[in-house]
Amino acid sequence: TKPAVRVAVTGAAGQICYSLLFRIANGDLYGKDQPVILQLLDLPQAQGAVGGVVMELEDCAFPNLADVVITSDPKVAFKDIDAGILVGARPRSKGMERADLLSANAEIFKVQGAALNEVAKRDVKVLVVGNPANTNAYITAKSAPDLPARNITAMLRLDHNRALSQFAKKAGVLSQDIEKLAVWGNHSPTMYADYRFATVKGKPLPELVGDEAWYRDTLIPTVGKRGAAIIEARGLSSAASAANAAIDHMHDWIHGTNGAWVSMGVASDGSYGVPEGIVFGVPAVCANGDYEVVKGLPMDDFSKTKFDGTLKELLDERDGVSALLG
Ligand code: NAX
């Protein structure tokens, strides 16, 4: 058998992980023939609950789950990891201002970035899911100067998948047949789902949809506010779909996309006028355990407005946490 890969997951007692951990243990990330060691991080007060989840993992008797580590110490959780999925974050509590939420999370991801820097494999692949995901990933990367910034990414894939499904329903096609969809910017209601380049079996998606007003006035806000709609309906935030998106993001990064576009939040190299280092949702193609941003796509007036709006929000978030980075 192959040597086991080590995958750290934070927020292990939470609701996303109640789905995510079972998918990873089942082989959905690295494949059915690859043994996996899960290294689970949560707060000290959640250790008992993580223990319960681990009992259930054991009770699945997954053939390739080689070992499970439970800890509240990031340096134990991130030791020698190949992949890290950072789900745990501070949720907004009653009366908490946005600025307080930003700085509470900045503190968490500063510590976790430093721990990754110290103990993770040098080519570790990191996905930040915990909100505000893009800015948390930015802080993680800034706090891990010895790791390649391009290996610390944020999750835009749920927005991407949400948009795929809505377009598929409207155009009467299968979501798997939609290619070249892009979701730009922040994982927040300002994100910009861009269908201008999308095709279905070679036909332009905008033609198949045939309703620009629906796209602008329904699709974009539906995807942007989907998280809130799920909370309203379920009384809890999206969890299984978020776990699924995290699996999709990491799976594609590890195994490649055969030329297909996916949306990933990645540290900017300056393309599209996004300041270097800002973690921004972009279309990307994955191959050989790496990804390339799709470059040189033209912008029109509408896309420029949407793009600038979501970029401004991220620059504001960066300014909100910059003092903490020192
Ligand atoms: P839960 O509140 O169910 O679970 C969070 C878990 O994280 C808890 O067990 C908590 O003890 C733990 N935790 C808190 N601080 C920690 C720290 N410093 N180190 C380790 N663990 C810590 O939340 P859940 O529904 O699982 O959502 C987790 C995060 O994902 C939230 O920030 C949420 O906003 C975010 N989401 C991001 C999405 C995205 O597309 N990027 C979509 C889904 C989700 O809303």
TrEMBL record:
Gene3D superfamilies linked: Lactate dehydrogenase/glycoside hydrolase, family 4, C-terminal, NAD(P)-binding Rossmann-like Domain
SUPFAM superfamilies: LDH C-terminal domain-like, NAD(P)-binding Rossmann-fold domains
Keyword Iron in annotation: no
Top-rank lineage group of the source organism: Bacteria
Domain Lactate/malate dehydrogenase C-terminal: 157-319
Binding-site residues, NAD(+): 11-17, 105, 112, 129-131
Catalyses which reaction(s): (S)-malate + NAD(+) = oxaloacetate + NADH + H(+)
Domain Lactate/malate dehydrogenase N-terminal: 5-152
Coiled-coil intervals, chain numbering: none
GO terms for MF: L-malate dehydrogenase (NAD+) activity
Binding site for substrate: 92, 98, 131, 162
Listed PANTHER family: MALATE DEHYDROGENASE (PTHR23382)
Function statement: Catalyzes the reversible oxidation of malate to oxaloacetate.
Protein name, UniProt field: Malate dehydrogenase
Taxonomic source organism: Xanthobacter agilis
Gene responsible for this protein: mdh
